[in-house]
TrEMBL record:
Coiled-coil residues: none
UniProt-recorded name of the protein: Multidrug ABC transporter ATP-binding protein
Highest taxon above the source species: Bacteria
One Gene Ontology term, aspect cellular component: plasma membrane
Principal subcellular localisation of the protein: membrane
Organism whose genome encodes this protein: Aerophobetes bacterium
Amino acid sequence: MPERKPGTTTRGIFIGGPGHRHLMTGKVEKPKNVRGAMRRLWGYMRHQKRGLLGVGLLVVATTILALAGPYLMGKAIDEYITVGDLAGLAHMAILMMGIYVMMALTTWLQIYVMIAISQRTVRDIRKDLFVKLQSLSLRFFDQRPHGELMSRMTNDIENISNVLTDSVLQFISSVLNIVSVTIVMLLLNFRLAAVSLITIPLMVLLTKMISTRTRRGFRERQKSMGILNGIIEETITGERVVKAYGCEKKVIRSFEVANQRLRLTATRAQIFALVLAPLMNFANNLGFAIIVGVGGWMVLKGMATVGTIASFIVYARQFGRPLHQMANLYNTIQSALAGAERVFEILDEAPEVPDTPNAQPMEKVRGHVKFNNVCFAYKKGVPVLKNINIEARPGETIALVGPTGAGKTTIVNLLMRFYDVETGSILVDGLDIRQVKKHNLRRQLGIVLQDTFLFSDSVMENIRYGRLDASDEEVMAASKLANADQFIRHLPQSYNTHLSPQASNLSQGQRQLLAIARAILADPRILILDEATSSVDTRTEAHIQEAMLRLMRGRTSFVIAHRLNTIRNADKILVINKGEIVEQGTHEELLKRKGFYYNLYMSQFKSLPLQK
């Protein structure tokens, strides 16, 4: 039904959404506040102060040990090698070996601790993101391809994890190394240190010029990756339809367009990221050449010792190595910051259908439902429902009929409060549903759809989704009432049979019977039955109809069906066309009027064309 534009999910039941239409139409995102993203990441990390303190101490220890090596080497040259003191040289070599062993140990420990910190951090981010997604309205999911959301949940968070594990530690260590090496170089020989630092302004300028373009490039790459993931996810989900209509070439073309876009954006991002490293390497080697030239001249003039120059050369390499590492880190850091921004965008989304501050709990209801002058539009200016007025008294069955796209499913979406009405109100037992806690409201509602969604779990757990605290005996009792127990016991492992993805190891009718069992177990006061008996054989339909009658007994029921013979006994039939109720009454009353309903009925049972 075209009015099923929104994806609708409730208690594990799904109505397909249109997110895929937006796959190739998203606007290029503007660069966001990188400092803000870094502050948000720090907000997650600061809860692990003990671990961060430990990493900090280990980094300091590693840096001190790294500084000791070149100093001792210079001392060995000046005090032992030049005078031929082999015993002193051996003692110094053993000392240096011990220092490097300690340095390896502290390096391993800081990596180990940082891995633990990063994994706890991304665990918290992943949890917050998943919880946030559960709180967002269906309109949010309507406007975004599911694959793109999956990309944020997986790829972007994985990039954050990689950066926190490797890059952050390297960055901190590099900064500390640069500062400490600079101090030691100044203490060893102020003049030579001043000469060796000439290339730093060049390095800073190169970094600043390239970093902005690099960040933008990685944002575009992440967006392209999300689009490609959306196409892949949609194609795999709809593979049966693709093959049935011979559209393999069409989806391959769509994939190739997105794949080519990803190649181009990834190439640009990588070029900007990688060009910085050789430039920094050039500047570093230039500084090294200056040190060798000036240092050699100073030795010849008696202004420095050979040991000092040797130490200086090693320190210069230690100074250049972190700069080189920081240049290489732009690849992963920029990618991760772009991903972090995308994750935080979702975390900052405001729910469109929130509980009000004074929302009331709703206990067991009688099932009195009223729609008062309800108007609604998925897209502003394009009304889907206009002045809908409905009253369903407790225990009544209300049938919603009409052509495809009339607005029938939208009515039940509003009753479930997947969306809020634009004008008017919906009352349950006299309470405006906007003033009721959503969770309490939805526990009063049960829904059975044509496209029943079942999880890749056991049959038992899929039925138990209707009421999570139900015992196995209660699940089986509900299955018997739903006429599902017999076929379940013939499954390979009975109630413990694990369903394949999309429950493809069950027939359409069997899936609907499980949905009915789930609804019976939930014991709602208000039922929504949407196309529950279409696409099944006559015998299965009889089983479903019998189960439906048991389920509906004593409950307020809204039934949506194109097969009008299934709703002849409804207390009231509402005929909807173009978002308006054009007729209402019982089956017999509407046939006598020979209006819109009569034409629908006759077109089905007499093979007559629908009159306009």
